[in-house]
Design brief:
Blueprint: H1 2-9, H2 13-34, E1 43-49, E2 57-64, H3 88-95, E3 98-102, E4 110-116
Antiparallel strand pairs: 1-2, 2-4, 3-4
Length: 122
């Protein structure tokens, strides 16, 4: 689904692969950390074309109702720390132009991801 939406928005194949990976990592983090591995819990995904016409692109919002994380503690592990797992935040941040975590009303977490087709000045 993510791949198809990104293709319709107009992203190149290389960017589509990065976007799919970023969303996959974000959903994995929701299941693993927010819902502590419990299945059958709600996750909302919203895809909206970037409204700023000069840039084009996509905004993706991922919303859960699980355990809230400390917003200050969300950060990618150093790439020098070589071991399995734990690179999801780094992968998300490297794939996207903007990444914002928040505590929405009603509990849980919301992740807002933005990827532009064109960078200002390009």
């Amino acid at each position: 689904m993510v791949e198809q939406i990104c293709r319709e928005v107009g992203f190149a194949e290389e960017e589509i692969s990065k976007l799919v990976l970023a969303v996959d990592e974000a959903l994995t983090n929701v299941i693993r950390h927010g819902y502590e591995g419990q299945g059958g819990k709600p996750i909302e995904l919203v895809f909206e074309p970037e409204p700023e016409a000069s840039r084009g692109g996509l905004e993706i919002r991922i919303r859960d109702y699980g355990r809230q994380a400390d917003l200050e503690a969300i950060c990618g592990r150093s790439l020098d720390d070589v071991r399995p797992g734990g690179l999801g935040v780094h992968l998300i941040e490297s794939a996207m132009d903007e990444v914002e975590y928040s505590h929405p009303p009603g509990g849980g977490m919301q992740l807002r991801l933005r990827k532009y087709l064109r960078v200002d000045g390009a």
